[in-house]
Amino acid sequence: MNKSTRLMVFWVLLIAFFAWDWHVSEPVNLRKEPPLIAAGSGQAPSGGHCASTF
Amino acid sequence: MKRIPLAAVMAAFFIMLVWFVSVRQAILYLVGIGMGMVLAGMRFGFTTGWRKLIEQRDPSGVLAQILLLVLAAAVSMPLLAAFPTDLGAALGPPSISLIVGAFVFGACMQIADGCGSGTLYKAGLGIPLNMGILPIFALGSFLGSAQLEQWLSLGAIKPIGLVTVFGPWEAFGITVLGLLVLGWAAVRWSGGAVKWFDRRLLIGAILLAVLAALNLVIAGQPWGVVYGFGLWFAKIATAVGVFDPASNAFWSQPVNLNSLSQSVFLDVTSITNIGILAGALWIASGKGEAAFKHPPLSGTQWLVGIVAGFLLGYSSRLAFGCNIGAMVSGISTGSVHGWIWVPMAFAGSLIGVRIRRHFKF
User: Fold this and answer.
1) Which residue of B has its CA nearest to A21?
2) Whose CA is closest to B96, among B342, B325, B337, B328?
3) Alpha-carbon torsion B65, B70, B75, B77, what sign?
């Protein structure tokens, strides 16, 4: 398999996963959009991180 | 692959994020693209840098990584002190889990020829082994997170943040001192036989430090990779009914349950991971087939590589991050766990390069 074909298969599978995820996940609530810049927003970070425990 | 259609697709995804998800996530996607372009374009490999130091006594890669850490710490530590509620450090607990995880990760990243960021950008470049490893890495990352509670029960103390304990400038001074010692050790080990500095890698280090700082300022949390992988597989496992997040110590936490319920496009590490893949694809699109000719791997090499990829994912969760989440983000934001991660992962790499040679990678 050459590089182009490999990349095509890889991205098709990845995009299929993202499409499925978008379909089954809760709709995005645009009214709860996170601040554009966290620094100075007054809001605590709310995402998961590799270093977090529980 | 032509760059103009690719640029159009990447721009369309950016607009989709702005319109349907959030402007912040769209900007983080661009930051991720920048990371992918720098990692792939400059071939800024953390794994390769360590291997060159071990096998060829070439310290140029390691010194570039140290420069990256110094620059990222110089920006991150004052920011963390200035915005203590808005920005969070990459704080992992010193623990048995960290010691075991970092050691195994260090060994496996040499065997699989890619750490967290390395697997991503090499998959984006179209390198077969790393493309094959990526989903297995995600599986390992998910299982590691699901079993984290048992590993932590073996012994752990609370995370220690140097910025909180000493203040930003003292923490930066301690960090620079530690990094100078590491740099001195690398140069001593090299014996001065080869060039210390590689201009391409130094530029890469500066650009990655800027992008890592942007990640912190925009997202409120430091750059990470493996949380996103674990999240992707956790979503699949939950959807097919083989995993109940509510009964798991890690995934039942509100932040993780929230991540599971919403689109991965809203997850910070997922969106920068997608950006890294896209940035590397952009670099790959500018090169011909010849640039990616690799001798085909044997069945044994594939098997060893895939097992290493699984262990990479699993151990990165035990170690509270990979070379990015634990080393770059941990050390640059003053987490003591990053300082435990580095020697343990390096010790693992000493074994890993031998295993790599044994299987003739």
Assistant:
1) B263
2) B337
3) positive
Spell out the SS3 assignment of B49-68.
Answer: HHHHHHHHCCCHHHHHHHHH
Query: How many C-beta atoms lie closer than 10 Å to residue B177's C-beta?
Result: 9
Question: What would the 3-class secondary structure string for chain A be?
Answer: CCHHHHHHHHHHHHHHHHHHHHHHCECCCHHHCCCCCCCCCCCCCCCCCCCCCC
A17 touches chain B (CB under 8 A): yes
Helix and strand element counts for chain B (H, E): 17, 0
d(CA B359, CA B301): 7
Q: Is B137 on the interface with A (CB under 8 A)?
A: no
A51 interaction partners in chain B (CB closer than 8 Å): 90-92, 159, 222, 224, 320-321, 325-326, 329-330, 335, 337
DSSP codes, B233-252? HHHHHHHTTS--GGGSTTTT
Give residue for tokens 């890993």. B352
Report d(CA B123, CA A10) in Å as an integer: 9
Cα A34 to its chain centre, rounded Å, is: 14
* 3-class SS of residue B94: coil
**CB contact, 8 Å: B90 with chain A?**
yes
What is the pTM for the complete model shown? Answer: 0.96
- In chain B, which among 229-248 make CB contacts under 8 A with chain A? 231-232, 235-236, 239
Write the CB contacts of B65 (distance below 8 Å, at least 6 apart in sequence): B46, B49, B205
CA atoms of B321 and B337, how far apart (whole Å)? 10
**pLDDT grade, residue B290 (50/70/90)?**
low
Q: Give B292-307 pLDDT, tens digit per residue.
A: 667 789 999 999 999 9
Q: In terms of residues, how long is chain A?
A: 54
In this predicted complex, what is the ipTM?
0.95
Pick the residue from chain A with its C-alpha nearest to B150: A53
pLDDT tens for each residue of A2-30: 778 888 999 999 999 999 999 999 999 98
Domain boundaries, position B141 = 3-358
> What is the total count of domains within chain B?
1
